[in-house]
Amino acid sequence: MQRKFHAVIAILGASLTGSAMAQSDVTLYGIVDQSVRYTTNADSSNNSSVQLLNGAITNSRWGIKGDEDLGGGLKAVFRLESGFEPETGKLDQGGSLFGRYAYVGLSGRLGTVTLGRQGTEAFNLFGEFDPLTVGNYTANSWPFFMTVGRISNAATYAGNFGGLHVGATYGFGQQPGSLSQNSNWSVRTSYDMGTLSVGGTYQQARDLSNNVQRMWGLGAHYGIGPATLYLGYMGGSDATGFVDSSLNDPTRTVTTGSFTANAHRDMTVFTGAMYQVNPALAITGAFYYDDMKNVNGFSGNGGKRCTGVLLAEYSLSKRTQVYGTVDYNRVTGGAYTELPGNDNQTGVAVGIRHSF
């Protein structure tokens, strides 16, 4: 799926000494994913829309990653990855050049330590245990706003020991005189036992006022022949307002209460299955359900959201796939602010994805 090129890089001093040389391995990679999507109840007047959008499941991106053998089982590693909108050519992640990942570190027998912009451990874990590997539309990826996603100014450790996988990330708040303001820390662990994998995570994030958003979760997947079954749970408590502000439809004018007095709470469960019909065709189904409390910072303002997604992907080659997807969302109670009009929305999309 990726085209590699190798280059021998001479250290600057080699021009003087004629001896200092190092071997580096660099990979240029990416995905260009474009879809045409039809959506019902797409605005406050419940009009439908037809749009050309980024991919339904995989966001378009390009990146460069590599490593250098330092000897003794130690390597230097780096990764720079940029998200973009192929329909316009604009950068994602607020216009950052490398808004998805930008880090450098060292990797050895005891694990890997990296510094820079990276995913939280909760995001890393559920990227493995979600049937859709975290979808790209808000209509199919909304539970994962609880994980915060990616953070800047982060130090991460990751270790793999047989079937055991562990990770820990600390995001520096960068605030003079305070180690807690705007900080983030998270841990994860998972274990593989044949075709069964199970894992768990805990995360805590603070805003500039030291209000806290917490999330925790468990996940599992199990392979049976050509099928893989998924099951997961995500819980959260948010006194920062981040989850509500991320999920409220941007076209709505939403009044908020006190998040510090009435922290938003989530109890989310999800399940799904992927079936490899043949080497070219894969079908995935996923279902997500969230029971919310104190929506938008108001005590007793509860709500529910449920989502069903069906995805069919067909490989034209090792690098190119075409796909179709259908998703249905329904909200009740205080969760009505997450959709622009009626309490339900249906989306249908077809697309093409090319990896390099």
Automatic annotation (TrEMBL):
According to its record, how does it sit in the membrane?
Multi-pass membrane protein
Q: What cellular-component terms does GO give this entry? A: cell outer membrane; pore complex
**Is the keyword Membrane assigned to this protein?**
yes
Which residue numbers delimit the Porin domain?
Answer: 10-332
Q: Which residues form the signal peptide?
A: 1-22
Q: Which InterPro entries match?
A: Gram-neg_bact_OMP, Gram_neg_porin_domain, Porin_dom_sf
Q: Which GO terms describe its biological process?
A: monoatomic ion transport
Where found in the cell? Cell outer membrane
Q: What is its main location?
A: membrane
Could you give a GO molecular-function term held by this entry?
Answer: porin activity
Give the keywords, sorted. Answer: Cell outer membrane, Ion transport, Membrane, Porin, Signal, Transmembrane, Transmembrane beta strand, Transport
Q: Name one Pfam family in it.
A: Porin_4
**How does it associate, per the subunit comment?**
Homotrimer.
Return the protein name: Porin
